[in-house]
Amino acid sequence: MSKKIALVTGITGQDGAYLADLLLSKGYEVHGIKRRSSLFNTDRIDHIYHDPHDEDQRFVLHYGDLSDSTNLIRIIQQVQPDEIYNLGAMSHVKVSFDTPEYTANADGIGTLRILEAVRLLNLTKKTKIYQASTSELYGLVQAVPQSETTPFYPRSPYAVAKLYAYWITVNYREAYNMFACNGILFNHESPLRGETFVTRKITRAVAKIAMKLQDKLYLGNLDAQRDWGHAKDYVEAMYLILQQDIAEDFVIATGVTTTVREFVRLAFAEVGIEVEFKGTGENEKGYVVKCSKPEFQLQAGAEVVSVDSKYFRPTEVELLIGDPTKSNEKLGWKPKYDLQALVKEMVAADVELFQREKLLKDSGYQIKNQFE
Ligand code: NDP
Ligand code: GDR
Q: Which residues form the NAD(P)-binding domain (predicted)?
């Protein structure tokens, strides 16, 4: 059998990187679409990228953008993919309130462009399509745990754009008999997670605070509850969804939910720092109770977490908890990581990352904090 060809949009993102690794390990030829940027943006996939002059070209990058249909048509025509994983998106919920029109274009109409390209190129029988749908579709809580049949109530321009993408995927499946599926994935994280999503923001800050490279972590809504899994497990589910005989939509989740506040406690506990929270709402703060690791000594009573209302969202999604019964039963999918193992891996990776920064600082260099 000839090797399968996959095309991945969003290849430079967290999930794109893990999925590329997975597909390459399964013998696929993997093509990715990356955006032109003024600085290198391939950090997450540099370990699998070969010099284009090398013989072995199982991993190929194409310049492109989900806002450019002619570009998508050309790439899909050239690649003739067996599977397309549409992971590209402006994926930050808070930022989508600042860039709603762009978000609708990339995340909503971008999906339509992919589906139309496949249809126009007469690839509907050959090419299977995975659409990166999201638990943000559930938005304002209608029922918990959220399953494939729970009604949607999106609460951000991002979620509304993804709602269009969800339904246009269903519509093309029904109208043109395409193998097009939605994976409704709940939050999934990893050491490769973007620095401004809450988990990575926390694990980076915990590492820096423990090493005295930063004093305090400012957060928004500490009460929000999320069903957090590991991206490595979730890309397995994406792959499995496209290997089924029948195209269907699946919820991918752990079934366990945790507050942002508890994630903070767990992350500090990884560096031996016990944190307790006092106060409520905008006045809530986290204080050091004690430190049990000699290498990370902070004073008891030090204020290490503070709420800053600038991180609140105009409309918030308070509670997400997924029901993965269908994916457990039909895909045979079960996550290998639990929250504790996820937090451990993320904190350890950030501690390692900032050990280098600490070395520089200790030798007299000043490094600016560029992330919030
Ligand atoms: P990331 O933000 O890490 O990656 C997004 C990717 O999309 C990046 O490669 C980015 O490129 C690319 N991209 C952004 N805009 C465009 C555009 N206009 N045209 C082409 N590519 C673009 O997201 P994740 O990897 O975490 O998520 C992958 C997908 O899954 C996204 O669609 C996200 O919305 C969705 N999702 C994610 C969940 C999660 O918890 N991680 C849960 C449910 C759904 P660049 O690197 O240049 O910015
Ligand atoms: P989310 O992830 O919005 O669920 O979308 P994010 O990590 O940004 O927020 C999770 C929750 O934490 C609260 N929060 C903060 N969030 C951020 N980013 N920064 C803060 O300082 C902060 N303080 C509290 C948020 O209000 C929210 O309730 C992610 C993205 O990957 C989407 O693309 C994806 O579709 C969903 O997960 C499922």
A: 7-346
Ligand 2 midpoint to CA 24 (Å): 30
- Could you tell me the domains of the chain? 5-185 (3.40.50.720), 198-225+259-317+338-362 (3.90.25.10)
Which of 15, 45, 66, 185 has the most ligand 1 atoms within 8 A of CB, as the residue to mutate? 15
Query: With a threshold of 0.95, does the pTM exceed it?
Result: yes
Cα distance between residue 142 and residue 147, in whole Å: 11
pLDDT tens sequence across 67-96 = 999 999 999 999 999 999 999 999 999 999
Phi, psi of 88 (to 5 degrees): -65, 135
d(CA 92, CA 193): 12
Tokens of 194: 């973007």
Q: Is this complex's ipTM strictly greater than 0.90?
A: yes
Which ligand is nearest to the Cα of residue 95, counting in written order? 2
User: CB count, 10 Å around CB of 239?
Assistant: 20
The first and second tokens of residue 168, run together, are 């246009």
